[in-house]
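Continued from yesterday's entry.
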Amino acid sequence: MWTTPGKLRAKGIIGMNRRNIRYIGRYNDRRLYPLVDDKLQTKLLAQRYNITTPALIGTVSTQFGVKHIRDMLDGHTGFVIKPAKGSGGKGILVVERVEGQHYIKPSGAHLTLKDVERHVSNILSGLYSLGGSPDVAIIEDLINFDATFSEYTYEGVPDIRVIVFKGYPVMAMMRLSTAASDGKANLHQGAVGVGIDIASGQAIRGVQFDRSRHDHPDTGHELASLRISDWGTLLRLAAGCYEMTALGYLGTDMVLDRDHGPMLLELNARPGLAIQMANGEGLRNRLDLIERQPDGLEVEQRVAFAQHHFARRSELDTLQEATA
């Protein structure tokens, strides 16, 4: 359905121009961008601030180092290879298990050592990096995502995007991979976005390709029961990334590991705006409220403020009640 700029403003929807000028331009010092644009820098910085991230197996920075991939991967039953400067999920290779001489992807596809080496070589050449600049390949332990989400995702690890403004978590969504998204949690490729209530970690509403969605397109599981455990810890980790980076407008991507709980995957200094669609609400009113708050509050105080002021009732629950 078509809408008008006036209706979007009334719902508090912000567009790219306002995001770029009012929030990113004002609150994100460009000299700090490398802290989040380079995933290796982000990981090392997170370790200094005791923010949990997937364990680092190793890095490859030269073509000569590609020949040592086998030794680096020896003893690891699953792993992820990603470009340090990649964006939009490009160049991420997930190997779920190793069987003999084959590396098995979540889809069941078999790769040889030569395939893995070729992928790493492509990363180094800048095939997936921002601007095509030479890159570094990061190899991490595979995330063992919480089994409670297995019915909500397809061949991929669901992640949670939290927008953090001046250290306050202001809006959140979970991204669920689908067959259309090739097992990647990328909304533009067809993943399902589920708005999450900041107060409770409960699903609010779901969307896929900008249309409302009440169940997962591949598993058929309804979305109303989706609730993120250890939600308070996840919000505190996300909010703490403000002190870690000094970036005022930030997208934090988190995952839930069944052994280690909430973990930071990566950060984004220019987070997209689809989170508004997933939540059925604009960011502007929440951002305006945060701008009126005093500086200097601790993480716990900021999280408590957000949970109190940004609580939402699930539209999915309302739909279920109406059809019961």
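--- second protein ---
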Amino acid sequence: MISHRVFGAGLIGGFVAGALLKRGQTVSVVARPQVRKKLEGGLLLTDLEGHQARVPSPDFAPQAPAPGDRAPDYLWLTVKCTSVIDAVPDLERHLGPGTVLICCQNGLGSEGPVKAAFPGNTVLRGMVAFNVAEPAPGHFHRGSGGSLIIEADPGVSELPAAVSSGLMPVELSTEMDAVLWAKLQLNLVNAVNALSDVPVREMLGQRGYRRVFAACMRELLAVTGALGVALPRLTALPPTWLPRLLSQPDWLFTQIAKSMLEVDPTVRTSMWWDISQGKATEIDYLNGNVVAAGRRNGIPTPVNEHIIRLVKAAESEHHSPGLSPERLLQETGLD
């Protein structure tokens, strides 16, 4: 029996733990006391496609396992990018020489500190292409489509067959850099949503917000073009078509982009939640990566730079500014 340990039981960690339990895997979770209390009654998993599962509470691993405790076969690191470095000292207590670490963070490069700290372990990147919300304590809802994509490695070739399900499709990729850039293109919506202070579906229904999102995408595509990175398709349309689609009038967008609007009407992005809870956002790992790569390659990225400034201001004030589409266009220099 494969054993898994999920390190961090937030939205993604809670959903992953529940989906693994649903597949009959041996699962333990490393979580803070308040999170443990919330999950003690079991987990409810649902998704946009109608899948549903109730699973018992996972076992909770101690922060410092006793000597001789069996290390997991897989350790899923599901903390945010901003918490990876702080997690490294604690991770060491949960690893054995054969433990495979799967880093499930947004953006690019957050797995670097883990690889540097544990050169003897296999460290793989994971990309969660779907959105997870928590409508009630212990209820994790996958509010959009997409798979969990894991960096291909000979040691994990049988993992998808063991853990994949309708609730959490799992696949492997040999082109993880390109996959992460493609996910980053979609994740550029996070900041726009955080600044708008409305649910994602409502936000996508307004052309002004979509124009800002599209402008951020165009800068990323210019950067990846300079890098020679061919982005894989993670949506129904090729990545290069998305900015044009987003820029269409509302009536046309709603006709041809139905799949983009197949999002739970209450879903907001993790960046909105971070700002509303007074936490540091992942803006430096998302839009910040576009800006940094643009500077290295002589590609201007003014819209993403404006977005970073606005998000950092919202971080300092601990709430979303609730910018209208017109105001956000002005603030980003697009109108």
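The two ends are 58 Å apart (CA to CA). The chain has two domains: 3-174, 180-331. Will compare against the first tomorrow.
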